[in-house]
Design goal:
CATH topology: Cathepsin B, Chain A
Structural class: alpha+beta
Largest sheet: 7 strands, antiparallel
Number of domains: 1
Order of helices and strands: HHHEHHHEHEEEEHE
Number of strands: 7
CATH class: Alpha Beta
CATH superfamily: Cysteine proteinases
């Protein structure tokens, strides 16, 4: 009986050990590997996280700077010769100032081309204003230029002395032609017969520039052969800038240009 009793106890102990072993295996084995159905994932478990905008959008560290200027800029300013009908007598032989003012006026009015009669009509009006104000219409300096422009055109003028090339280019970039005042003899333009003994005072309109060639593009109203879109090297052009000097009757005043802008 004692043997049977020991045997029963042994079976009970063995059964307990097997039960514990089975429980441990079940806890560490995936359900589908021990023949039990796999649990169905909840809705939260089935959603794949969506990256936030911070992790998917790349923001540039800096914004590229775009220059308004290019190597070549030219404004569509209509060309007017200082003697539109080639009548080089009377006031027409010294009408570069009036021609310059008229070119810019027609540009701001949106005209691409101007007939000789239309140009002469506006220039004749300017002759009359000069005669009434100053007693003549010859050699208008920057101050007279500004007075005529501000009071008798649709745009306004700003006198700038000792201008730089960059300042002039910036005006062109903004769509504003620039009127320049010169000692014309030193422009070395063979199409304009300046005399060294005269005042050689001359004006024209800067309508563009070409950085690749280091040149200003101008409408030179005194050049009857190649005045439209004429080109002068930067250095030569800047060295000849001079306002008219009434004290000695010569173009030896300060380097001067006239910036223009439309009346708003």
């Amino acid at each position: 009986m004692k043997i049977i009793g020991y045997f029963v106890v042994l079976l009970l102990v063995l059964g307990a050990v097997l039960a514990v072993a089975w429980f441990v295996v079940a806890q560490n084995t995936p359900a589908n590997k021990i023949g039990l159905p796999s649990p169905t994932p909840t809705q939260t478990e089935m959603i794949t996280p969506i990256p936030t905008s911070t992790s998917t959008i790349i923001t540039p560290t800096s914004t590229p700077t775009i220059s308004a200027s290019t190597d070549l800029v030219e404004l569509p300013v209509p060309y007017i010769n200082e003697a539109p009908s080639n009548n080089w007598t009377g006031p027409w032989k010294n009408a570069c100032e009036e021609a310059s003012i008229t070119m810019v006026e027609k540009f701001y009015q949106g005209e691409k081309a101007v007939s000789a009669s239309e140009a002469e009509s506006f220039m004749t009006m300017l002759f009359g204003k000069e005669n009434a104000l100053y007693g003549n219409n010859v050699n208008s300096d920057a101050a007279q230029f500004k007075n005529l422009i501000d009071n008798h055109t649709t745009y306004k003028a700003t006198i700038v002395t000792n201008p730089t090339i960059d300042q002039i280019k910036q005006q062109i970039d903004h769509g504003h032609p620039v009127i320049s005042l010169h000692y014309g003899f030193e422009l070395n333009n063979p199409n304009i017969p300046f005399l060294r003994t005269g005042s050689s005072y001359h004006t024209m309109v800067i309508i563009g520039y070409d950085d690749s060639k280091q040149q200003f593009i101008v409408n030179d109203d005194g050049d009857t052969k190649a005045g439209a879109e004429h080109r002068y090297d930067y250095d030569l052009f800047m060295s000849t800038l001079h306002d008219f000097n009434y004290a000695d009757g010569k173009a030896d005043g300060l380097p001067t240009v006239i910036f223009t802008s439309p009346n708003l």
